[in-house]
Amino acid sequence: MSEVSLPTLGTLPNRILRLYTGLALYGVGIALQIESHLGGSPWDVFHQGLSIHMGLSVGTWIILVGALVMLLWIPLRQKPGIGTLSNLIFLGLFADAAMWLAPTPDPLAARWAYLLLGVVATGAATALYIGAGLGPGPRDGLMTGLNRLGLSIRAARTVIEVTVLAVGWLLGGTVGVGTVVFALAIGPLAQFFMPRMRPKG
Fold it and tell me: I want to staple 161 with a disulfide (CB 3.0 to 4.6 A). Which of 13, 42, 146, 173 is the partner?
């Protein structure tokens, strides 16, 4: 998490606006990556695999998995914020709405456009909702909780994402070039957007 002092985050209404804009944009990013059928992020491969194997929508599984992940916060002594609870409730709803609205493309060029737009949208969304400073998402909190137990952020993220990716793939989620693109691009994109989307002053 950035060590930006609270006053530079803006007023509370501005931070809430950034939070919900970021969550809506993140839902769009998830939907575009899944609808591209070129492979999504590790967590979305997991959610998609659960949806294929067990029914319910991808967005519903985003919510249910987020709630289960938050149970792991208890022994890790993580404390949720309004951003955490908003992420838990609304991200799946936004993702389902965007998947319902977005037509599934057939041409490969259109699928690549979906993928790239989705990854960029996710990077911008990450900068918005983290920059709001209202609490990490359930999955991010799991990573930072493991970090408090002694694992490096890199190790914690790697263990978590490799695990959910493997399980999601076994359940039928789409793993492909998009998964690699996401893994390579999301960090640099979030770093690029973070200072550009931070309120001035």
Answer: 42
Q: Which two tokens stand for residue 83?
A: 């951003």
Walk along the chain (201 residues) in steps of 10 and give the mean pLDDT of each run: 48 92 96 96 95 94 95 85 94 97 94 97 91 87 81 82 93 94 88 77 49
Q: Provide the pLDDT for residue 144.
A: 78
Using an 8 Å Cβ cutoff, are 171 and 42 in contact?
no
Q: Whole-angstrom Cα distance, residue 46 to residue 48?
A: 5
pLDDT at 3: 41
Torsions phi, psi of 40, nearest 5?
Answer: -110, -170
State how far the alpha carbon of 96 is from the alpha carbons of 23, 65, 198, in Å: 12, 15, 28
Q: For residue 159, give Cα distances in angstroms to 149, 163, 188.
A: 14, 6, 20
Pick the closest to residue 89 from 72, 70, 74 (CA basis): 70
- Give the span between the Cα atoms of 180 and 196, in whole angstroms: 25
Six-digit token string for 137: 């998402």
Contact 26, 91 (CB under 8 A): yes
Write the Ramachandran bin of 133: left for phi over 0, alpha for psi from -120 to 50, otherwise beta.
left
- Between CA 8 and CA 11 the distance in angstroms is 9
Measuring CA to CA, how many Å separate 2 from each of 6, 91, 149, 192, 195? 11, 22, 20, 13, 10
